[in-house]
Structures are given as C-alpha cells and as structure tokens.
Inverse folding.
C-alpha cells in the first residue's frame, strides 16, 4: 500500500502542479520512495547545513578548506593564472577566496540559483578583488554558461568543491563530468573536491553526529515538502537513518516511518507509509583517487595533479581535457 492515490484525474493534478511538485509526487509514489536531496535546502535546511559544516564529526568542509589554504600555490601552478574560473552552486563563494589571490583568474563566474544571496556575495568579492572581473550568474548548471565577451578567448576552468559530486549516482556524475568537458573545451580544466573512501566508523559518525544536527537536516526535508505541496506529513513519525554502505561505497540517508500512517499530499492525493518503511533522501558516494579519475577519463578528463591531507580523508583533484 505504498502508492500515492490520486483522487481526481491525474491530468488535472499535473495541470495544477509545477515541475517541482510533480517531482515530489513522483518520488513519494514510487515503489521505493525518495525525495531529491536538493529539497534539503530551504532557508532552515541551509542554516542546518552551515552547522553541519562546523561539526567535529563532519570532516569534509574543514579538511577541504585546509587543503586549499595549504596548497594554494601548487594548485595555482597546476591550473595557471588568467583563466575564466566558473563555480557551479557557488553559494557564499567562501572556498574560492582561498584561491583567488594566487590563481588570479581574469574572470570569476559564480553560478547559483539563489539570486539575491549570490549577487550580494559577488558584490563583496568584487570589492575585495577589484582586479578580477566577478560575473555572477543566477542559474543552474544545466544551462549553457555564457562567458562575457571580453573573456571569450580565455581558457575555462570549472571549480567544483565540497564533494557535491558525491551526491550524484556514478552514472549522473559521469553525465555531469561530460557536461563539464563540453563546457570547458579542449584547453579547459576541472578543479574538484572529492571525498575519499575511509574507515566506516569515521563516515558513520560524520553523518550521525552526536548533537543530532544531521538528523534535523534530514527530517527538515519533510517540512520543506509540506510547504511546497501543502501536504501534512507528520515529521514526528519519522526517524533519521544514515549508514555507510561498504559494498557500494556510499553513505545512504533515509527517513524511516515509525508506524503505519497515511498523509495527505496537498489537495489531490494521499500516501500511506508502512511501519519501518523508508524514504530515501541522499547518497554520498566516496571514491578513491584512482576510481574517480577512471570515471573522469570516461568523460575525456585526465588527472593532472591531486592533493590529500595527511589522514587521506579528502582530495582536491585537477583535471585537464584530453
Ligand atoms: C552537500 N553534500 C556534499 C553533503 C555530503 O556530505 O554529502 C550533504 C550532507 N548530507 C549530510 N551531511 C552533509
């Protein structure tokens, strides 16, 4: 009894739903229920993610920043100065600030869907780095990136930190890498943060922190869904479940229903959750440097250099087109 039950004609339902709503309804009516992790990031979810990045157990953010600081000269030498540096999902543009002084791109293009926040950050960056053209684009990465006329002949480098790539299934990661390769062309590159395979206790702790912030972050996705759909899913009837799946080298996050119950999904449909049934909310794949470079090679990208911390927790990797 897992299906979303449409109580009126489906066509009518979808006429009235925008794309996001349809995506949510599809996920909650699937045999194995899921919610796309992009729905984590409403205002409260984004605040919780900021907190996650400060948690003692969550090593990726601080390790990556330490690597950017420690190896800024080597990274800049590998990438080369005078590029157009493009950062999809740039958010608050924090990490790039450790690179800009040495890397000296001619133009930095942060891309993000949160327009107001992005333009505010870009304005501040332009003030701090007057010699670099900061050209912010409010969009997602699916669209083509239009480089300002003046910099059309510069080589392009995509900066993709944060191990966001780990949140894609490998086949989707490959599509993303192919898209990057097409975008940067023959002379371009990709500077990417990739989280590494490691002891499962470290991984399990990173996604099950003691303070319970990751649990709140996971559960909050249901509040966001309720706001978007006008649904009444009872968040209190779910528990955060997260574990490292060693066979598939990925963290899995789920929300587990603690009892059989039914929720209304807005005006037209309802969904029944059985006891212990899970909604899948996120994968976070962990790679080896070799494993990731093999994937990138399939997209026409060759590993030029990489940097690791002493505990080999996290990597920054630089690829060039081949
Ligand atoms: C955004 N992304 C790289 C984070 C990760 O580690 O996969 C999201 C996250 N989920 C739970 N904690 C952090």
């Amino acid at each position: 009894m897992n299906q979303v039950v449409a109580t009126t004609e489906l066509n009518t339902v979808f006429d009235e739903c925008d794309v996001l709503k349809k995506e949510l309804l599809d996920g909650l009516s699937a045999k194995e229920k899921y919610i796309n992790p992009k729905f984590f990031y409403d205002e409260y979810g984004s605040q919780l993610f900021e907190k996650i990045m400060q948690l003692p157990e969550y090593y990726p953010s601080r390790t990556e920043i330490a690597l950017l600081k420690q190896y800024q000269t080597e990274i800049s030498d590998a990438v080369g100065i005078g590029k157009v540096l493009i950062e999809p999902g740039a958010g608050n543009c924090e990490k790039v600030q450790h690179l800009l002084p040495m890397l000296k791109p001619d133009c930095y293009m942060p891309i993000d869907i949160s327009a107001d926040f992005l333009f505010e950050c870009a304005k501040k960056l332009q003030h701090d780095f007057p010699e670099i053209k900061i050209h912010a684009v409010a969009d997602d990465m699916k669209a083509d990136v239009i480089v300002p006329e003046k910099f059309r002949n510069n080589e392009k480098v995509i900066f993709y930190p944060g191990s966001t790539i780990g949140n894609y299934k490998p086949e989707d990661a490959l599509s993303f890498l192919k898209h990057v390769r097409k975008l940067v062309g023959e002379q371009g590159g990709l500077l990417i943060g990739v989280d590494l395979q490691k002891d499962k206790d470290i991984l399990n702790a990173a996604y099950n922190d003691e303070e319970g912030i990751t649990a709140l972050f996971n559960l909050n996705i249901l509040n966001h869904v309720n706001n978007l759909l006008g649904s009444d899913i009872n968040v209190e009837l779910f528990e955060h479940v997260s574990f490292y799946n060693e066979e598939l080298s990925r963290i899995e996050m789920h929300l587990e229903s603690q009892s059989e119950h039914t929720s209304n999904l807005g005006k037209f449909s309802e969904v029944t959750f059985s006891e212990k049934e899970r909604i899948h909310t996120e994968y976070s794949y962990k790679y080896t440097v070799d494993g990731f470079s093999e994937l990138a090679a399939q997209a026409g990208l060759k590993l030029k250099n990489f940097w690791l911390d002493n505990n080999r927790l996290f990597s920054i990797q630089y690829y060039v087109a081949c």
Q: What stands out?
A: Confidence is low (pLDDT under 50) at residues 1-16. The chain is about 35% helix and 25% strand. Residues 52, 60, 162-164, 166-167, 207, 214, 282, 284 surround N,N-dimethyl-L-histidine (CB under 6 Å).
